[in-house]
Write a structure and sequence with these properties.
heterodimer, A: 254 residues, alpha/beta, Elongation Factor Tu (Ef-tu), domain 3, Rossmann fold, 2 domains, 7-stranded antiparallel sheet, 7-stranded mixed sheet, 7 helices, 35% strand, globular, B: 306 residues, TIM Barrel, 8-stranded parallel barrel, 4-stranded antiparallel sheet, binds flavin-adenine dinucleotide, binds flavin mononucleotide, binds FE2/S2 (inorganic) cluster
């Protein structure tokens, strides 16, 4: 798939809550071709501090716009959050290999989306594209860290929640919530931290359920050039930024 | 004013312009085709190749540092045979001089076998001997840290190839001039410098190195002053052309290397940030020459006033 580097105008920059933000760019070439699971690589500073771009998942696209949601966690995201509507940012995308929408749906399985923390970002885009209403399981540290619950509901998805501290929904891990909600014929799509994705892969293997997981690694280039983001698969090492970030759970070696 | 001349020669190699891309930072060129016209590069240096496929080092392999980055990829590459079958065809199509970087894993003889096989490929314009990779575990010292070892390997390779031979030097030495001298004496057509600086970064919460291999190589703007000084040192020691690199991010930083004595420059880490930056630098160099009424870029080489 063709990638584009462009100076994208910020169309909206809004606070969701606390450190969580929503941002929209004008990026027609990226919007036109983007698939759920793909990401953009953002250069937040024209001088070299921070030096490297930062990868952020596509949260959705519409007409000529691309949307992201992000958490302010460090140097680059702190700069990003100070960028205002009307300013321009250098972005590259749509990068990577997104979710395969056809395969699992074709078999008429129940679609289960499992999000840990910021994992909701790409899964929202996926839920839009899947069209059939899915079951969405969202896990967060506390009630305050839950994102996108209403948006998923608006799409007609049923949403179940887990929090580590029990401040809302099921108290415990989202992977336990998943075990409680497995059905005979289902398909899994997951995004979150590695330990969570490993458990989901184990569940998928145990019950022989098709599953796709979206991985995160530190990325220096995002375009497949540095070999800094590799993951072990049954077919050898693959680049998370290029052959991923979405992989079939069954193909990964943990 | 007339168009300034920016073509340069490195051994038998004639480059349309002095801007190339550094080994390990440009993949096999195909990764960049959406972002730039790769045909316009002066030359392409490919990721260091070993005889056999190599898996490289464990993750995490890279991290950002102040004005730089660390990497310990560990020379992951598909090995010579798969490279020739799967990666070379695209490179050939670019029409740009292709410089193949090679390294041995265990025995120096592997250099000879690699070069012997590359010798018969017409489109291989030059061979770069990577004797300076800091990321091969189990190697206590680099060939590029020993003038005698450098001399020996360069001389052996020289005997079996008529292709342009470039020796890539390490900054992790007491006197880089001495190593460059050994490479020149042994028949190297050019030297390329610098490879990454040996470095470490620590996660204080985990009290572990941020890179799984522990020690890694530092690149990016942070190393530029070190690299410029080393190019100047080598320029004053040897007569063969120098390919300068280390933190080149834009035209001004490329010019520093040329003024210090480099005949050509290589863009590395900057490719990750701005994939088309090399072409911007080529345009910028032309502009600088016009503005300063210099008709041939070679007049700038080593033109440092002191
Ligand atoms: C494919 C992909 C998609 C992503 N999508 C999103 C998204 O939609 N929304 C979002 O908020 N974040 C997302 N991230 C994570 C995001 O890239 C990092 O949060 C960001 O790079 C942090 O930059 P910083 O300079 O602000 O923080 P830094 O100062 O670089 O780091 C702050 C902390 O975050 C950790 N960190 C930084 N980068 C990563 C990473 N890539 N993976 C795991 N931990 C990291 C660091 O180790 C450190 O502890 C994604 C990452 C990848 C690889
Ligand atoms: C991710 C990465 C991988 C590299 N791989 C190689 C390699 O395979 N062979 C080599 O000779 N140099 C390799 N280098 C070193 C570069 O070619 C270059 O010498 C160094 O990075 C300094 O230039 P820079 O600061 O412009 O990046 C690598 C550098 C980086 C950042
Ligand atoms: S981030 Fe460079 S290869 Fe994936």
């Amino acid at each position: 798939m063709k990638n584009f580097q462009l100076k994208a105008k910020i169309l909206a920059q809004t606070k969701i809550k606390d450190n969580y933000w929503h941002c929209e760019f004008s990026a027609p070439q990226i919007a036109k071709n983007a698939l759920p699971g793909q990401f953009i690589n953002i250069r937040v500073s024209a001088n070299f501090d921070p030096l490297l771009r930062r990868p952020i998942s596509l949260h959705g696209v519409s007409a000529a716009k691309v949307k992201i949601v992000y958490e302010v966690v460090g140097k680059a995201t702190e700069i990003l959050v100070r960028k205002k509507k009307g300013e321009f940012l250098d972005i590259i995308g749509p990068l990577g290999n997104g979710f395969d929408l056809g395969m699992q749906k074709a078999e008429g399985r129940r679609q289960i989306l499992v999000a840990g923390g910021m994992g909701v970002a790409p899964l929202m885009f996926l839920a839009e594209k899947l069209k059939v209403p899915s079951l969405v399981l969202i896990g967060a540290k506390t009630k305050k860290d839950l994102l996108c619950v209403q948006e998923f509901k608006k799409l007609g998805c049923s949403v179940k929640i887990s929090t580590d501290d029990g401040s809302l929904g099921f108290k415990g891990r989202v992977t336990e919530l998943l075990r409680n909600n497995l059905t005979k014929s289902c398909a899994l799509y997951a995004c979150g931290l590695k330990p969570m994705l490993k458990v989901i892969s184990d569940i998928a293997n145990e019950y022989n359920i098709p599953a796709q997981v979206s991985l995160e690694e530190h990325m220096s280039c995002g375009i497949g050039a540095c070999l800094g983001c590799v993951v072990k698969t049954k077919e050898g090492l693959k680049r998370v930024c290029q052959e991923g970030p979405v992989f079939k759970a069954q193909d990964l070696i943990w | 004013m007339m168009k300034p001349k920016i073509s340069v020669e490195i051994g038998k190699l004639k480059l349309n312009n002095p801007v190339m891309v550094a080994s390990g930072t440009f993949g096999y060129a195909e990764e960049f085709k959406d972002f730039m016209d790769v045909k316009k590069l002066g030359a392409i240096v490919t990721k260091t190749l070993t005889l056999k496929p190599r898996k490289g080092n464990p993750m995490p392999r890279t991290c950002e540092t102040a004005a730089g980055m660390l990497n310990s990829i560990g020379l992951e590459n598909p090995g010579l045979a798969i490279f020739i079958r799967e990666k070379l065809p695209f490179l050939k199509k670019t029409g740009v001089p292709i410089i193949i970087s090679v390294a041995s894993e265990e025995k120096p003889e592997e250099f000879l076998e690699l070069v012997a096989q590359l010798n018969i490929i017409e489109e291989v314009a030059a061979i770069e001997l990577n004797i300076s990779c800091p990321n091969i575990q189990g190697k206590e010292s680099l060939i590029a840290q020993d003038p005698a070892a450098t001399y020996k390997i360069v001389q052996e390779v020289r005997k079996i190839t008529g292709k342009t031979l470039i020796t890539k030097l390490s900054p992790n030495v007491t006197s880089i001039g001495d190593i460059a001298q050994a490479a020149e004496d042994a028949g190297s057509d050019a030297v390329a410098l610098i490879n990454t600086l040996s470095a470490m970064s620590i996660d204080v919460d985990k009290r572990r190195p941020k890179i799984a291999a522990g020690i890694a190589g530092l690149s990016g703007p942070a190393i530029r002053p070190v690299a410029v000084k080393m190019v100047w040192e080598v320029f004053n020691k040897v007569k063969i052309p120098i390919i300068g690199m280390g933190g080149i991010m834009d035209t001004a930083s490329a010019l520093e290397f040329i003024i210090a004595g480099a005949s050509a420059v290589s863009v590395g880490t900057a490719n990750f940030i701005n994939p088309g930056v090399s072409l911007e630098i080529i345009a910028g160099l032309k502009e600088y020459l016009v503005k300063n009424k210099i008709s041939d870029i070679r007049e700038l080489m080593g033109a440092l006033k002191i």
